[in-house]
Amino acid sequence: MNDGLNDDLNDQINGSLADNLKTELEQNLRHESPILAITAKDSSDSISEPDQISQTSSASQISAHRRFFKLWGRRCLPYLLTLPAFLLVMGFIVYPIGNTFLRSFRDSKTQQFTWDNYRYFFIDPLQRDNFAFTLRIVVATVALAMVLGYGLALYLHFSPSWVSRWLRSLTVVPRFIPGLVATYSLIMVIRDAGVLNRLSRLWGGNFKPGLMYHESGIILMNLWYNIPFVTLIMLASLSALKPASIEAATDIGAGKLLILVKVVLPNTFKEILIATTFIFMGNVGSFTTPFLIGGNHPKMLGIALFDQFNNYVNYERTAALSVIMFLICSLSASFYIVNNLRQRQ
């Protein structure tokens, strides 16, 4: 019997000791002390105070480093993610432009600074004819494409007929046809021995369009590209036009021409500038169409640039002409940028 009482007493003592140790462990974990020690209050084997201070300082330094790297990691992560794109832009756009600009001021033989490369394009009669020829074609293309494309967009937007729906589907077709294929297709039609000439011979005639190796042929091919482009941009702009505005103008007695001038044109003016800018810049440096349809003289600037680089092997003049073409395109783009800034103000 005494043995049973002793066993019960030992079990109670061991249980109480285990509960005390568990309580102390929970308190240490709750306080998150950097020094995890399980000691009794009256124990003489506790850690010395200098050791506690050194361990606390090292733990605080580690946490400070972690906070530092975490903070700067959040700040630098966006820049690290955009670094590859930034390097590509610098390597393939900024560096070539800067190198071209610097090379345009070098002499092809002595590599010394000179203005002769630029002076050549403004003094030589052939090069001046190329500039005039290019600007004439570009201005004609922009004017005709804007008028015809805008008119087609108005018809497609306001007409509910099946013809307008059919033409709307056809406006996207030129986007999916390669330029070289489209140019050769037009050549097969408009050349002197092409489709038009053969059709005329069936009726006893001998019609020769005379569009090959002439600026009118280049303009015609440019219109094939740019009229659908203008139409798509204008359709997107006209879709945002509220029908209530047109109905209100009609109710007060405004005619179609007045509605066009006072309601439609102001709401699509921004898109008109966008289309004009893109058509102008795209045709200043065009190559495929003038190369296949244009004549030997005068030439558009894209062909003149190709001649300087490939035929004359004069890289300095090529760089100068590239800078001139870039400035011409920048001049057209500046009108859109200035107008956009004015609208924001």
Question: Can you offer a commentary on this structure?
Answer:
- The protein is an all-alpha fold.
- The chain is built from 14 helices and no strands.
- The protein has helices at 2-31, 49-103, 116-123, 125-158, 162-170, 179-190, 195-202, 215-238, 243-251, 256-267, 269-284, 288-293, 301-311, 315-344.
- The longest helix has 55 residues, at 49-103.
- The radius of gyration is 39 Å and the shape is extended.
- It has a domain at 131-344: Orthogonal Bundle (MetI-like fold).
How would you describe this structure in keywords?
0% strand, 345 residues, 77% helix, MetI-like fold, mainly alpha
Low-confidence stretches: 1-6, 31-48
DSSP helical segment count: 14
What CATH first level of the domain at 131-344 would be assigned?
A: Mainly Alpha
Q: Share of helix among residues?
A: over 70%
CATH topology of the domain at 131-344: MetI-like fold
Number of DSSP-assigned strands: 0
Radius of gyration: 39 Å
**What is the average of the pLDDT values?**
80
- Structural class by SSE content: mainly alpha
State the end-to-end CA separation. Answer: 102 Å
- The gross shape turns out to be extended
Q: What is the element string, with H for helices and E for strands?
A: HHHHHHHHHHHHHH
Largest sheet: none
Beta-strand content bin: under 5%
* CATH architecture classification name of the domain at 131-344: Orthogonal Bundle
The CATH superfamily of the domain at 131-344 appears as: MetI-like
